[in-house]
Design brief:
Length: 375
């Protein structure tokens, strides 16, 4: 799947504003988005998605773990198919290849943090600190929190004496692999970013300070992020995804994976008998995912004494018919689909297509948006 809009946007493209790529390498596909800034707006130039299964001898839609050289081959192919015209890019790091944690530390001078955070992080990282690359962000204290309203002297004292720090760790071997991928594809990576931060940037409305859950239903896993005031407060991985639905359709209907994937993607357009079977299988597989999601939701609300205001569903699994409604019913909370392409200027005749297919491009778009902002 690839679209190019160079003719449509020719007046914009004649301006010397650099184009940038956001690249999301998932377990079942690579997604790329190329954008350019024009008159203060991010303009969509081209996008593409390529299944990785065939590069590992598997079917389209199946998750696979490819060696670096195969990923390079696939990345070059999708960039060529999408007719990408820049080498400037940003690339996401999978959540499973990183560690993100909010830790409490004694309040201290900013000059002390570089020395103290690695020491404190050892409690949370299961490998030697020398084997990972660390980054961190001191979470600002809310000026209108419930604790402030209560005026508790003990709480105020505690807030003065401690700080919350968001700590991110990525194994050096992972970074080395991604550097090899970028080099092999002839690209220039401006930065790497853990996928959750890119996704959050593309679907969370600016100025929303209420706790929000993002549910990213991928092929092999479902990722959950709870965000408050733009900061990740909690994150979890559920080892089930949309691939499991396809596998169960294939098994239940005694068909091959490829045909089952086609039926799943065409849900609502198949024969009534096929769709009835698919609906029951989707419900069967989505229920445990949403059950685990609800556990994460309830635990956060109890621990923080704050209600999550909504759930935003993204990822390829968000395209399944009825998933948003089922999520709202099972979680007893407002649920909506993310719309990352709404951040980009694009041809009007493609708005509906991009809205329906954009769920799986959230990470790639979030990367490209940050790259434009950093310029």
């Amino acid at each position: 799947m690839a679209k190019s809009f160079k003719d449509f946007f020719k007046p914009f493209l004649e301006k010397k504003n650099p184009s940038v790529l956001g690249i999301d390498i998932g377990s079942s596909s690579i997604k790329v988005v190329q954008v350019r800034k024009s008159n203060g707006q991010a303009v969509l130039e081209t996008y593409g998605e390529l299944a990785l299964g065939p590069y590992g001898g598997l079917e389209v839609g199946q998750s696979t773990k490819l060696p670096v050289e195969k990923i390079v081959e696939a990345l070059i192919d999708v960039l060529k198919e999408a007719n990408a015209s820049t080498i400037e890019c940003a690339i996401s790091i999978p959540m499973r290849s990183s560690m993100v944690s909010v830790i409490k530390m004694p309040a201290m001078d900013s000059k002390q943090l570089p020395k103290m955070i690695p020491i404190e992080a050892r409690k949370y990282i299961p490998v030697p600190i020398s084997e990972v690359t660390l980054d961190w962000f001191v979470i600002p204290k809310s000026s209108n929190s419930d604790e402030d309203e209560e005026g508790s002297e003990e709480v105020s004292k505690n807030k003065r004496e401690t700080s919350e720090v968001l700590v991110v760790a990525i194994h050096n071997d992972v970074l080395n692999n991604y550097n090899s991928i970028i080099s092999g594809a002839g690209l220039n990576a401006k930065f790497f970013e853990i996928e959750m931060f890119s996704t959050i940037r593309s679907v969370l409305e600016a100025g929303n300070n209420q706790p929000v859950m993002i549910c990213d239903i991928g092929s092999g896993v479902t990722k959950l992020y709870i965000v408050e005031r733009g900061v990740v407060r909690d994150s979890h991985i559920i080892n089930r995804g949309s691939q499991d639905i396809t596998m169960n359709i294939a098994k239940s209907m005694e068909i091959d994976f490829t045909f089952a994937e086609k039926l799943k993607r065409n849900y609502g357009k198949n024969t009534p008998d096929q769709d009835e079977k698919i609906k029951s299988i989707i419900d069967l597989m989505i229920s445990p995912i949403l059950s685990d999601t609800n556990t994460v939701l309830v635990n956060f609300q109890k621990k923080s004494n704050k209600n999550v205001s909504e759930v935003i569903v993204v990822g390829g699994g968000a395209m399944l018919g009825g998933v948003i409604e089922t999520a709202q019913e099972k979680l007893s909370i407002t649920a909506r689909a993310g719309d990352p392409f709404s951040l980009l200027e694009s041809p009007e005749f493609l708005k509906d297509v991009l809205q329906k297919t954009g769920f799986s491009f959230a990470t790639a778009i979030g990367l490209a948006i940050r790259e434009l902002q950093d310029m």
